[in-house]
Amino acid sequence: MEVVFGSVFPAGAYLVGDVEPVQDYKQEKRPDGSRPQQVDPDTGELIWTVPVLDADPEARKNEKTINVKISARQQPVPPANPDGLPFIPVEFEGLTLTPWVDDNGQFPRLAWSYRAKGMTAPGKSSKGSAAGRSESAAA
User: Fold this and answer.
1) Which residue ranges are recorded for the region named Disordered (predicted)?
2) Count of alpha carbons within 13 angstroms of residue 118, beta-carbon side
3) Nearest CA to 70 among 43, 88, 89?
4) How confident is the model over 43-88, as pLDDT tens digits?
5) Which three-class secondary structure state does DSSP give residue 62?
6) Which CATH class name applies to 5-123?
7) Which of 81, 89, 111, 112 is deepest in the core (most CB within 10 A)?
8) Beta-strand relationship, 65-72 and 109-116
9) Residue 71 · residue 115 · CB < 8 Å
10) For the segment 86-101, what is each residue's pLDDT rounded down to a tens digit?
C-alpha cells in the first residue's frame, strides 16, 4: 500500500550514499564472478538501493539509516545537492512499506521494507508532498 512520504519521514530524509544495484543471490554467479541484478517480478524493472538517513530526532539509533529500494529501468539519479550539504535532501515517490519479522537477533522484532518508484528533491514531487506532510498514513 502506498503511503504519504511526510507521514513516514516527518522531519525529512537525506541520501547518505550512492544508488547501487541490488544483487540477485538466487541466481548463479556470472563467469566473471559477479552476480546479476535483481529484477522486480511485478514490473520487470531492475531493483536499486540507496541508504537514507531519517532526520526524525526521535528515531531510534538502529532505525536512523535505512535502505530504500527503487524499481527502475535505469539507475535512478539523485536530486541536485543544494548548497553543498553533506547529505542530499530527498523525497520518495510511490513509497510503500512492507512489514516483515527480523529474527536474526536475540528477540524477533517487526521491521519494515521500504520501496519507492522514484526520488526527487523535496517539494518537487508530482503529488504535492507539502500537503501530505500534515496527513497521516494508515500503515
Assistant:
1) 24-44, 118-139
2) 12
3) 43
4) 999 999 999 999 999 988 888 999 999 999 999 999 998 788 899 9
5) helix
6) mainly beta
7) 89
8) parallel
9) yes
10) 999 999 999 999 998 9
